[in-house]
């Protein structure tokens, strides 16, 4: 089957699902993305866009949509309590890789990824929580909690930590965090924190 005839369903419209929607549309397949939330736009702090990601934001036109919402910083220090455990220099990294290291607000990033996905031809349907999957036939059928049915040639599970797609394929399997080294709070205590210095 040629990719031009494939209809791909993506379950979940976070950073992963929206990025997959853009990449799959660019490969020539048709994408329908189903997101549980009533609106896209995760609230939260800024997110770092390292050169391995910024190159795709540039290629996909997402950086043009974001414009001045992409922020560059002078340096980034990672502290563990009062101990400085890492110091990174974005200018050095940009020179070494050929692509920038940006910081952006999550809601801005999600909105720009959605705009780009739709410009690429993806259909993004919100307020659609998938509760049932049937992959026993030639196509994959999914059903939303309000009873709507969708059928795809291929389904991508991008529905986060508590993924029902993962649970369908690997019942009971949960991801384990490889590290606690981030701006991360556990039991009310800061484990470590990353501080940026902006120009
Ligand atoms: C404190 C912190 C800092 C971080 N900083 C960075 C950083 O600087 N740079 C970086 O690259 N990463 C960072 N990360 C990691 C990054 O945020 C995550 O890897 C990323 O957001 C995961 O995206 P996702 O699309 O896989 O999942 P999610 O963002 O969880 O998206 C899943 C989506 O699926 C939807 N969904 C769930 N179930 C269903 C269903 N049944 N049907 C339909 N839709 C469904 C949800 O509503 C949600 O919108 C950080 C994470 C944390 C916690």
Automatic annotation (TrEMBL):
Xref: InterPro entries: FAD-bd (IPR002938), FAD-dep_Monooxygenase_BioMet (IPR050493), FAD/NAD-bd_sf (IPR036188)
Residues annotated as domain FAD-binding: 7-170
Organism domain of life: Eukaryota
Gene Ontology molecular function: FAD binding; monooxygenase activity
One Pfam family hit: FAD_binding_3
Transmembrane regions listed in the UniProt entry: 6-24
SUPFAM superfamilies: FAD/NAD(P)-binding domain (SSF51905)
Keywords from the named record: FAD, Flavoprotein, Membrane, Monooxygenase, Oxidoreductase, Transmembrane, Transmembrane helix
Family: Belongs to the paxM FAD-dependent monooxygenase family.
PANTHER family in alphabetical order: MONOOXYGENASE, PUTATIVE (AFU_ORTHOLOGUE AFUA_2G01950)-RELATED
Protein known as: FAD-binding domain-containing protein
